[in-house]
Design brief:
Layout lengths: L12 H14 L11 H8 L3 H13 L3 E4 L3 E4 L5 H17 L4 H22 L6 H19 L4 H21 L2 H18 L6 H20 L2 H24 L27
Antiparallel strand pairs: 1-2
Helix pairs in contact: 1-3, 2-3, 4-8, 5-7, 5-8, 5-9, 5-10, 6-7, 6-9, 7-8, 9-10
């Protein structure tokens, strides 16, 4: 009994987008080069001309190509920068719409930043660490202002320098996607950072934590850099969570069913 070979389904527009991005990246195209005609691309990707046409419009929306009627599609960018920028907007929108609380944001930040510290220590060149060092110096200046001036100026300057410090480390790690996600997370967390209590002894402990992390990066010690980042974030968040949970229960922002953390800022385990 003979069998009839079923045709292989053609790939859809979303798959063609990935194929097009890979073709532009690896196919030797330069900015201004014209892509092959739609029919040629459809044969190359084993897809329909409709799927290719839709994919070209999606890639154009990302800023990678420009489709000129009756002329073709022309390369505008040979990097993933437009794609990363589009991803950044998607992350920002998702964080605004997601049903997440501060604890979710802090947990996500720790997971990302520990890995960023590890990768930064492995990949860093000494000149890459200059922005990290500059942010450290800016934090020192802000600490001094906080000590001599009781206004909010020093605190605001410290928060700005602290954000720059952590983003600089993420940049050295060399993964623009992780850096993008971290930037969005920090934007969501930043309003809470000003609530961290900054007694003189705590400022000194924080300064030492930042310096220890910087030195681990300088030494290229990935394991130590990850450890220093984890400990540093735990110190910061313990203070923040204690500050938040010291607010009287009637004014807290607990959602229904949420429990208060213990004195160390840890949430109790949920019973099954």
């Amino acid at each position: 009994m003979s069998t009839v070979a079923l045709p292989t389904p053609a790939i859809g527009a979303r798959d063609v987008v990935r194929e097009l991005m890979q073709l532009i990246q690896e196919g030797g195209f330069a900015v201004g080069d014209r892509l092959p005609p739609i029919r040629d691309l459809a044969r190359k990707f084993d897809s329909s001309t409709t799927a290719v046409r839709d994919a070209l419009m999606e890639v154009q929306a990302l800023g990678v190509i420009k489709v000129v009627p009756r002329s073709g599609a022309f390369v505008q960018s040979c990097t993933y920068a437009p794609l990363v920028n589009a991803f950044a907007g998607a992350v920002d929108g998702a964080l605004l719409q997601a049903d997440s609380n501060l604890f979710h944001l802090l947990e996500a930040r720790q997971l990302i930043e520990v890995e960023c510290a590890i990768q930064a220590a492995r990949r860093r060149r000494l000149e890459d660490l200059l922005p990290v060092r500059e942010a450290l110096e800016q934090m020192d200046a802000a600490f001094e202002l906080m000590h001599t001036d009781r206004s909010e100026q020093g605190r605001e300057q410290f928060v700005e320098a602290d954000v720059r410090f952590h983003l600089a480390i993420a940049h050295v790690a060399g993964n623009p996607v992780l850096e993008t996600v971290l930037r969005s997370l920090l934007a969501s967390i930043r309003p809470h950072l000003a609530q961290i209590p900054w007694a003189r002894d705590r400022r000194e402990i924080t300064r030492e934590a930042h310096l220890d992390l910087y030195n681990a990066l300088l030494d290229g010690d990935a394991e130590q850099a990850g450890l220093e980042m984890r400990q540093h974030l735990k110190l910061a968040y313990d203070g923040l969570l204690k500050k938040i949970w010291s607010v009287p229960r009637a004014h807290s922002s607990l959602s229904p069913g949420e429990s208060s953390p213990d004195e160390d800022g840890n949430l109790p385990k949920q019973s099954s």
